[in-house]
Amino acid sequence: MTGEPPDLSIIIPAYNEEARLPRTLARIQDYLDAQNFSAEVIVVDDGSTDRTAETSEKWRAGQPSRRLLRNERNRGKGFSVRRGMLAARGRVALFTDADLSSPIDEAKKLLEALAEFDVAIGSRAMNRGLIEVHQSEMRERAGMIFNFIVRIMTRLPFSDTQCGFKAFRRERCRRIFEQQRVEGFGFDPEVLFLAERHGLRIAEIPVRWADDPATKVHVVRDSLRMFMDLFVIRWNQLAGRYPTRIPGVS
User: Fold this and answer.
1) CB 17 within 8 Å of CB 52
2) Do 204 and 123 form a contact (C-beta atoms < 8 A)?
3) Is residue 220 domain-resident?
4) Structural domain of residue 27, as residue ranges?
5) CA 9, 10, 13, 14 torsion: positive or negative?
6) Domain count of the chain?
7) What is the Rg, in whole angstroms, of the alpha carbon atoms belonging to the chain?
């Protein structure tokens, strides 16, 4: 792709999202049409077995600001976000869940925070009054327990690491995605751990959010996997797999 880089890249990891993706893409386009900045939208199809790829191909036809990346097989949300982030061209790169649990117009909050910070993460826990549709009690409790364990094991200070709505000043943050190893749902603490490790400034921002019952996260299976990913993060640190400094970042 040639020409001036866009101001914003929006990355959407998608696995078997044939049903929800058209509405999400339409809402994002409506949002971008009302803005005065340039943007690109990147869908990363994570080896879907439905018509996610075909839906995305039809959507992007003849539009160079719309891109589709296809994983040959299902690799995980972390892998897909990493791939989209490394392919992005925007000054700022934002990833969002395919169901838009956080409405895309909440991006304004994150983008404004990046005037001062390097990373802005959406949070459900900072103001639960902004949650429009709650998860089941079991899911909410599991999320609170996981966040407590994240704080202990990584010393991250954030009240919600798992909200799928995060924005980054791309050039300053590119190296953390190059270093990212976790490919599943547990990638968020690793990305934030790396950002803190390298002295990047992180803002946690309360955002509107609504649970979608069609979520791909299995509360027991994926919680166990995310828990194990926390040990992987610590092991990678001890094994020296995370460089201690990002060039150009003070």
Assistant:
1) yes
2) yes
3) no
4) 8-135+160-178+195-213
5) negative
6) 1
7) 17
Q: Could you tell me how far CA 5 lies from the centroid of its own chain? A: 21
Q: One digit per residue, pLDDT tens: the chain, 250 residues? A: 557 899 999 999 999 999 999 999 999 999 999 999 999 999 999 999 999 999 999 999 989 999 999 999 999 999 999 999 999 999 999 999 999 999 999 999 999 999 999 999 999 999 999 998 887 788 888 888 888 989 998 999 999 999 999 999 999 999 999 999 999 988 999 999 999 999 999 999 999 999 887 666 665 676 788 888 998 898 898 888 887 654 454 4
Q: Which residues are registered as beta bridge partners of 41?
A: 10, 66
**205: Cβ contacts below 8 Å, ≥ 6 apart:** 109, 110, 113, 120, 121, 122, 123, 126
Quick one: 198 exposed, middle or buried, by C-beta within 10 A (0-12, 13-18, 19+)?
Answer: buried
Q: Is 126 exposed, middle or buried (0-12, 13-18, 19+ CB in 10 A)?
A: middle
88: which 2 tokens? 């992005």
DSSP state, residue 30: H
How many Å apart are CA 153 and CA 74, to the nearest integer? 28
CATH at residue 96: 3.90.550.10
**166 inside domain:** yes
Residues facing residue 123 across a β-bridge: 206
